[in-house]
Amino acid sequence: MICSDLPLPAPGEVLGEYALFSVAGEGAAGVVYEALDAAGRSVAVKVLRPEKALDPRGVEEFRAEAEATRLVDHENVASIFDAGFVRGYHYLAMEFVGGPRLADLVARCPIEWRRATRIVIGVAEALDHAHRRGLVHRDVKPENILLHRDGRPRLTDFGIAKDISTLKGWLATGRPVGTAAYASPEQCLGKRLSPATDMYSLGATFYAMVCGRPPFTGASRSEVMRMHVKAVPRPPRDLIPDLPRPLSRLIERMMAKRVADRVPDMDRLARDLRTILAGRIPIAPSAARARA
Prior knowledge:
The protein is an alpha+beta fold. It contains 10 helices and 10 strands.
């Protein structure tokens, strides 16, 4: 039985076979603890907030995170070892990455473009793997990217990942799919989604990494959504003059309003980014920019 006023586990408690030590992160849906499993291995235990567990959709998304993550099974996706229900708590036990969230770095200052590019290549590889298995993440953003101690990214939170064949954008109930600051125009309009949705959101994340802020900010979620649909962000190079021109144009292309104008897939994106890092052939501007 689940009670909405059930307190979250406190550090020092044991949840199933996991000894919880400290809170490593918090979100609207859950709290992540650093913990040890029965074998003494460091793990992260994500616990669904009790009030969220009263919503069947919240529980479904929480369980879906484990299923989708296991399906993707990529080195740049944070692995999930176990999922269960103990003492009234839904939990996931996953790889303890140990490094910071990308969002924490972005909040401090822009990330040097070479480092940012290497991180985006890693995330693109994980998303390419997911797309080839028929899944779209739908919520790519700095908060869902962890950095390993060696600097490699780990994509997390596949709770709202869906089969490509069934995707829609904003739900009829008004409940958002994704996060407004990084949502694609088709998400904001409630249109059919595709892997190009993740391309746009990764582009918006890349923009925030190198510029130190998201491409659009506003007083409300609806205002930001309107900007994703109608407004054109300032080119990254206008804000960061040291940014290579081909990279600035590629970020713009990732965020093209029309799906057809975006980079065609994550594999192509990773290859183009490696070309830029190596200082080889510049990337051509997007079709939309060429027509301007």
